[in-house]
Design a protein that fits this description.
The structure is a single chain. The protein is an alpha/beta fold. About 50% of the residues lie in helices and about 10% in strands. The chain has an eight-stranded mixed sheet, with helices on both faces. Strands 6-7-5-8-9-4-10 form a seven-stranded parallel sheet, sandwiched between helices. It has a three-stranded antiparallel sheet with strand order 1-3-2. It is globular, with a radius of gyration of 30 Å.
């Protein structure tokens, strides 16, 4: 064998042995088998190893009970042990350690009497890993917990900022403000804090403004927590998370709006939260300059301010964000300590402008000044950055339409090579949604666009491909700044006349931070700020440069509470139905106002809330939502039920007359109109936000123009058409196209004002919000003991959720998950459910029982396959899915 060949063989062998250490539980196995210094190297069986790993994970074998029967604690331990041993991961990792020479095996493979002993090479490998982990070997609670999560993530070492944090922060017993750049590992530190609290029996909440971050946290950490014996639930509107589950779950991972809604209705689980992680605290800064009828009620910063104000009374708060100005103000407000690493990495920053002689690119520090005789900005930047084919590039545009158009231009002139199967991995082979179909055409050229109009599933798969480096040119709206860091080498931001979102330096840093701290430290990076046209915020490139590159960071400045939130807070406070006085209720509202962060920035804010309270209280009395009593006041029965059901009180009182006359037999057109009269569906694109008179009056706003009123009415027809088509079991692409056809033809006063499409991401949001609203209304009628009407709204909620007619919504057929390949099971489609229903199968139970006949030969499964109307092989898989569903329900009932 040649020397080169020998070196290559040795290198391959070393890689194989290192891979063995990367398997789950590999390091834990070596730690269990490794003796204390001076002790004899032990031989251990499977039982000892499993018990040792469970102990490392915090589950210690209980002392045996004195009676002959096992105690409940012992039985629970044995169940955990059996469950842990049942998976194949532990055995697979052990076999790889044996093959790599780190562990010596004695006894026949697969036999219970098989024992294991660590080898000299295994002890050396363990020592090397411990030394690489560095500070995590310190024997403190924080470091031990960090080490557990490092192993789960298969990370070798901490990032620099994480290491500095764990050096400085030795406990998590106080409120903490963590300010670290994007991609520097803030989420990891939050998980360390959560695990420490869970081990002490404290319920935890992870709050994020973005579903993409919720998905990332669930995908990356839920399995670890569940393996350690802690339950995790997702609470963001994409899945059902009923109150009883939320009450008993150890860790809730929720989006701002879902959690805030539960807080406003005083749900019991929100009172048990001991630790709250607030991700993206910079959302506390309002993007709205002046409040008007079109944006009233849409400011997320006001909701976050109120939510933290209420939570911090009983829960510890840890915030995660990049830097913002005047941090000491938030520090005082939360009575928190601040962590921010002193060393920061900065990308190269350039201002790009069009001059008479060409495109000028000037570095922010003035050291580079290049004039390229090109016609187009992108062409000039691509030449300036160099090596475009091998670099990952993010281009940030001001709108969805511009991102789609620009991606098309780039695909024609600056395409990149890409794996042939990437397109189907992102889009799938059957997705015919309008926006997804457009993306499908671009992907073969190595280019993608990204915005909220893409369906959630497609967007998540696309983000995974971007993170893995398989898609390396992306044109996006500012929504891609939603918390996830990508390995971009270059970020290009196009400032045109409508790019208003990036008016603050803190928001610019969020976009620039998509490069990611780790990627920036390893590879460097560059950001190009392209001044395309003057805007309301930036009249010239000089003001753009001064504001975004050189000006100090702005302080966080949340918007004021809007009337709907204050009305909900008022009724929440007295929703127990008992008497109260106006003064006492006002004092509580003023206390919330004084404790808010906005009050620290605006000294007149409490007076603003005081006036709004007075206006709203008078209106509530006038609308008979608040009734006078001998000792003061009390809420009406309807308002108590509405408050407990999570309905917006102002909108509820505006439609209460319609609700009072609702019968259980009611047309779906009326149901759709009722749902769309509430505020949340109005925010979805195309926006139909129309404040009520009391909201305008208590906010000091003028009535919107007749033109705006007509526009919202016409746009509302788009949503009516979408919901109506959906519950008629039409396919989503057809529903969206038909609704958009109405939107494209809107004409007001002879002026064409159509063209604002509802994309599939908007459609998903609309049906999700409307389905939950119908569920809230079902709960409202249940509180009033109107069972028939409650049932009708429950069925309507399912119609909206699944896109089916009422007869199918009444069945449980759509609850099944069918395994049709080696991949994850998929939901049983409404098309197949309709086939079964039309053939006489009205429930999962019917699938299993209808074809039973002891007098006939053969299996009931085979008779079902012939009678169901489904393709025979698929029908047998459906039968298996029905069996699995029933077994799972029985197991749940036993628990």
């Amino acid at each position: 064998m040649t020397e080169a060949k020998l070196e290559e063989t040795e290198l391959d062998d070393m890689r194989s042995r290192l891979r063995a250490l990367g398997n789950r539980y590999a390091i834990e196995i070596l730690e269990i088998l490794s003796p204390e210094s001076g002790d004899i190297i032990p031989n251990m069986g499977w039982d000892q190893i499993i018990e040792g790993i469970l102990e490392l994970m915090g589950t210690v074998r209980p002392k045996p009970s004195k009676s002959k029967e096992k105690s409940g604690v012992e039985a629970e331990y044995e169940r955990n042990k059996k469950k842990f041993a049942a998976g194949g991961t532990l055995y697979e990792s052990m076999n790889k350690l044996v093959k790599a020479g780190y562990v010596l095996s004695k006894g026949s493979k697969g036999k219970k009497q098989r024992t294991f002993m660590i080898t000299h090479e295994g002890r050396l490998a363990l020592s090397a890993v411990d030394s690489m982990l560095g500070p995590t070997s310190r024997d403190t609670e924080v470091y031990r917990t960090a080490k557990t999560i490092l192993r789960h993530k298969n990370f070798i070492r901490l990032l620099p900022a994480q290491e500095k944090f764990l050096d400085e922060v030795t406990d998590f017993d106080s409120n903490i403000i963590i300010q670290m750049p994007p991609g520097s590992g803030k989420t990891f530190l939050a998980m360390v804090a959560i695990l420490i609290k869970l081990e002490k029996g404290i319920k935890c909440l992870y709050l994020s403004p973005y579903i993409s971050i919720i998905t990332q946290v669930i995908n990356e950490y839920a399995e670890l927590f569940e393996d350690l014996g802690y339950s995790v639930i997702r609470h963001d509107g994409t899945t059902e998370s009923m109150n009883e589950y939320l009450m008993d779950t150890d860790l809730v991972v929720g989006v701002y709006e879902s959690v805030f809604s539960d807080i406003l209705r005083n749900d019991g689980w929100t009172k048990k939260i001991g630790l709250t992680i607030v991700d993206e605290l910079t959302e506390l800064d309002s993007p709205i300059g002046e409040i008007d009828a079109g944006n009233l009620g849409t400011d997320r910063s006001a909701k976050l301010d109120c939510m933290i104000t209420l939570l911090k009374r009983k829960s510890q708060i840890i915030t995660l964000s990049s830097r913002f100005g005047e941090t000491e103000e938030v520090e005082r407000w939360l009575d928190a300590r601040v962590f921010r690493p002193s060393v920061r990495m900065n990308p190269d920053e350039y201002i790009v402008t069009r001059e008479e002689a060409g495109i000028q690119i000037v570095s922010s520090d003035g050291t580079q000044n290049v004039l390229l005789q090109k016609e187009h900005f992108l062409e000039s930047i691509i030449e300036h950055m160099g090596d475009y084919e091998n670099k990952s590039v993010l281009i940030v545009a001001s709108s969805r339409n511009k991102s789609e158009w620009l991606a098309g231009v780039i695909s024609r002139h600056f395409s990149k090579s890409i794996d042939s199967d990437i397109r189907d991995q992102i889009i799938g082979t059957k997705d015919r949604m309008p926006v997804a179909s457009q993306l499908r055409e671009l992907l073969p050229y190595g280019v993608a666009f990204h915005h909220a109009g893409l369906g959630a599933d497609v967007r998540i798969r696309l983000e995974e491909m971007i993170k893995s480096g398989k898609i390396r040119t992306v044109v996006s709206t500012t929504g891609i700044t939603a918390g996830i860091s990508f390995p971009f080498d270059c970020v290009i931001i196009l400032f045109d006349r409508i790019m208003d979102y990036l008016a603050a330096r803190s928001r610019y840093l969020q976009v620039a931070g998509r490069i990611g701290e780790y990627h920036l430290a390893k590879n460097g990076g560059s950001v190009y700020l392209v001044f395309e046209a003057p805007s309301r915020r930036f009249q010239d490139s000089q003001s753009l440069e001064e504001t975004l590159l050189h000006r100090p960071l702005e302080a966080l400045n949340p918007g004021p509470l809007f009337p709907s939130i204050l009305a909900n807070l008022m009724t929440r406070q007295v929703a127990n139905g008992r008497e109260f006085t106006k003064e006492k209720l006002k004092d509580e509202m003023m206390k919330i106002a004084h404790e808010s962060f906005r009050a620290t920035q605006h000294k007149d804010y409490p007076n603003y809330i005081k006036k709004m309270f007075s206006t709203l209280f008078s209106w509530l009395v006038k609308k008979k939502g608040v009734e006078a009593t001998e000792g003061g006041f009390k809420l009406s029965e309807g308002v108590v039920a509405a408050s407990r059901s999570g309905l917006d009180i102002i909108r509820y009182l505006e439609v209460q007359g319609d609700l009072d006359t609702v019968e259980n037999v009611i047309s779906e057109n009326v149901l759709v109109d009722l749902i769309l009269s509430f505020g949340l569906p109005q925010i979805i694109r195309p926006r139909t936000s129309y404040p009520t008179n009391i909201e305008l009056r208590s906010s000091g706003l003028e009535d919107p123009s007749d033109w705006y009123n007509q526009l919202t009415r016409e746009r509302n027809k788009v949503k009516i058409a979408a919901l109506a088509g959906w519950i008629e079991e039409l396919e989503a692409p057809h529903v969206i196209d038909a609704a958009n056809e109405i939107g494209r033809n809107i004409v007001i006063d002879g002026r064409d004002v159509g063209g604002l499409n509802m994309d599939e991401g908007d459609f998903d949001s609309l049906i999700g919000i409307c389905s939950r609203l119908a569920g809230d209304l079902s709960q409202y009628f249940s509180q009033l003991k109107k069972t028939d009407v409650s049932t009708r709204f429950h069925i309507f909620s399912r119609q909206l959720r699944f896109g089916v007619k009422s007869d199918l919504a009444e069945t449980d057929l759509l609850e099944m998950q069918v395994q049709i390949s080696e991949e994850e099971p998929i939901p049983f489609s409404k098309q197949n459910a309709r086939i079964l229903h039309n053939n006489g199968y009205s429930s999962i139970s019917d699938i299993l029982r209808k074809d039973r006949d002891p007098d006939k030969k053969g299996l009931a499964r085979d008779r079902f396959a012939k009678n169901s109307g489904l393709e025979e092989a698929f029908a047998k898989e459906v039968y298996k899915a029905a069996l699995a569903y029933v077994r799972a329900k029985l197991d749940d009932d036993e628990d």
